[in-house]
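Recap from last week: sequence in, structure out.
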Amino acid sequence: MTELVLAQGYTLTHLTLTVFLGWAITSLFYWRTFTSLTRKRFITILFLRLLAIAVVIMLLFRPMLQYTHEQTQKKSIVFAVDTSSSMGISDSAGPANVPTSDGEEQTPARMEIRLNQVKEKITNWSEKLKKDFLLHLIDFSDKAVNLQDVALVAGLNANGTSTSLSSAITAIPAVMDGKKKVPTKEIEAVFLFSDGQHNTVRKPEEDAKVAGVPIYAIGVGTGLKSNSSFRDVQVSDIRIPERITLKNRTRITAGIDAVGLEGRTVKVILEEDTSMATEPQRKQEREREPPTASADARRKIGEQNLLLDALDGAQDVMFEFKPEKVGRTLYIVRVEPLGDEAIKENNERQTAAMVVEPGIRVFYIEGTQRAEYGAITERFLSKDPDLEFCAMVRNRSNMFERRTNIEDLQLKGLPSDQETIDSFDVFLIGDIHSSFFKPEIQEMIVKRVNAGAGLAMLGGYNSLAPGAYANTPIGKILPVMLGNPPDIPEAGQFSEQFMPKLTPDGVRSSIFANIGDFFPSTLGNAKKEGLMPLAGCTRVLAPAAGATVLATCPNVMVPSAGGGDIEMPVLAYRPVGEGKAAVFTGDTTRRWQQVAKALNQDSPFMQFWGQFIRFLASREGAVLKEAGVSAAVNKAYFEPQETIMVTATVKNAEGEGTEKAAVQGIAIRPDGDEDKIKLEPVAGTPGRYIGNYEPSAIGQHEIKVSAKVDALSLDAPEKIIIDVGRPNMEFDRLDLNEDLMTKIADVSGGRYAHITTADFIIDQLNREVMKRQVVVQVPLAPPFYFWLIFVVLLTCEWVLRRKYRLR
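Predicted C-alpha cells:
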C-alpha cells in the first residue's frame, strides 16, 4: 500500500489549506499592485511567484511517498571463545609445552590443548552453518573483543591473564555486522566455549539471565585431578588482612593443595617485597605479561616443611611475622617445585596488603556541657581529618550524648570492656567526677596506657582533686600530686587570668612546635602578642615523681620535692609503661580560638591540641597550619572487576578539614592510559572525600589524587600502587567447571554440552530466515533540487520585473 505522508504529523488538509491561502493572498496582492500590466504579462509574473510559493511550502511540509515490502534476513550465530591462559592447558597432563621423557618438548598437536579443540570445532561448525546464518566471533579473557570474522579463530592464542565469562556475555548485544549492531532478537544462539574457570568478581549466571538470548555453554577440558598419572602441588590460597598494622604481629595462612604426591615433603616459603613498581615491570605489563615481584627485592620471612596428605582440599600452613615498613607490601608464598610435577606455574601465589601506621583514636568525656567541650569537639576533633574520635558529654537528664566520626561504633555509654578500651589510643578526661568510672574500668584504662596509649586529665570543678581522683587507679598514674579537697584551698580552683609559662622542657617539646612564640617562657615574654590568657586553672599540690613539667602558672607557688617553692604545673606528663599520662589544668583554651577568630588573628588552638594528642599517642610531629591533601585506597590487592575505593583527606590554609575542595583522582593503567576518578565529600566528616573506580585492565595501576582548595592546586604526595589480579591466577583451578557452565546455559534458555558431544546442538537450530516488513519512504521534495528551483523561479521573476520596469 502506498500513501502520502508529511513531516511532523501534518496532514494533506494542512498542506492544501496552506497552498490555497498562500496563493490567494499573493494573487490579491499582485492584482492590486500591477494593474498597469497587460493580461499576458500579469499572468506570467503571477505564475512564477505562485510556483515559488509552492516550492517553499513543499520544502516545509516535506511530502513523501511511503510503502512497505517484505524483506528476508539470516539470523546470527555468535561464537564466544575463552582465550585465557588456562585454555592453553592440555588435559592429558599439563601446559602446552613441557618436556617429554626423552627431553624433547611436546608440540601443541600432541597435547590436545583446549583452545585447539575449540578452533577445530568452530571451523567444522562454520562450514555447516554459514549458508543459513551470519556468523560472529568474540575473543574474551579479562575483557571481550568483537573480531567479526569467524576465520580469525585460527589466530587466537591462550594468553589472557584472567577469565571473565561476564565480559563475554555482556558483549553479545554489541556484536557488529559491518557497521550495524545486531539486536539480540536477531541472534539465534550464542556458543560459549570455555573451561568455566571464571575468576573475576562478577557473577556470569546473573548476566546470562538478562542477556535475552539462549547461551549454549560448551565445556572444554576435563578433571585433571581424576587422572591417575597427574602429579601437581599448588598454592591454592593466601589469607591475610587487607590492611595490617606496622610492627604488630600478623598471621598469613596459605593453602597448599596436592594431587598424586601424598607422603612427599615440600618446603613452603613466605617472602615479602616492599618495593614499588619499576619501569621494567611497567614495560612487562604493557606487553601483557603478568607482573611479578622482583627477586632482588624479596626477603624471606618464613619457611616451613609440609608433609603432603591424600585428603581432598588444601592443607593450611600458617606464618606469623611483624611488618617493618609502611606502605604497599607484596607477600609471596611459594612451594619449591618437585621434579615430576605437571604444572609449576601454580607453585607460587602472591597478594598485596597495605601496611599502615596505627590510626589515632581519641575518647573524650565530659561531665558537663561546658565551653571547653564545644571548643575541643567542634573546633578541633571534628576539624582534624587525621583523627577518629568519640566524644561523650553528660546532659541534664544524667545521660551521655555521643558524637563520633567512627563508622559502626556501637558505644552508647562509657566503655566497660577491655576490647573497646583497647581500641582507643588517647583518653581525654574532662570535668567529670571519678565516681562515674568504676574501679575496674579505671584499671582497664590504666592497663591500656601501660600498653602504649596516652591519657590526659583536664582541669575542671569535678576533675583532678575536686573530682576525688586521688588514690584512684587513674589518679595514681597522673604526673601531679592531687591531694584531697580539704588539702586544696579555694575549692581547688585558681580563678585569676594568667598565661601559661613554658619551661625549658616545654620550649623543646613537640606540643609547642611552631607555636612557642605565643607563650612566655623562662627565657622571657611571648614574642607574639594578642593571645587571650586562660581564665584560671585547677590547683594541684606538686609534680609527681618522674614527671616532666612543660608549662606552669606563674601566679601560684607549690612546694617542690627538693625544698623551696616552684610555680604550679599547668601542663605536665610522665611515662607510664609504654604510654604517657598528662594533665592540663587550664580553663579554658576556647578563649584562644574564639577571640582570635573574632579579631581575625592567628591562634595556636588547633596546633596545640593536634600536637598534644599526637604527643600522647607517641606520634610526635608538628601540626602545620597549611593546606594539603593526602590519599589512600582501601587495600592493595583487588580481584579483576572489583571496585576500588579511593579516599582523600583535604585541609585548607588553616590546617582544618574542608568540604569545599574539588578533588579528582587519576588511575594510570598498565598500558599507560589514564582514567579519571571523581571524589565526593563525605557528609558529616569535613575534609574526607571518597570515590570509586572499577579498573578495566589486569596488572599494576598507579593512582594519583589532586585537589583544588580556594585558589590553591595541591597534589597528594603518596605514590599509590595497587595490584588488579595476580600472576598465574589462571592456574589456580584447572578442572572444567561444569556446574557454572550449566547454570549459565539454564538461566539463559540454552543448553550445556561438553565439546566432545556438542555436535547435536547445531542440528537442532532453527534455520528459517527472518521475514519482516520494511517501510520505504521516497521524498517528493528533495531539498537541494527544490531550493535550486526556488532560486531559478525568483531570478526569472526578477528579470521580467526589470524588463517591465516594475518595482
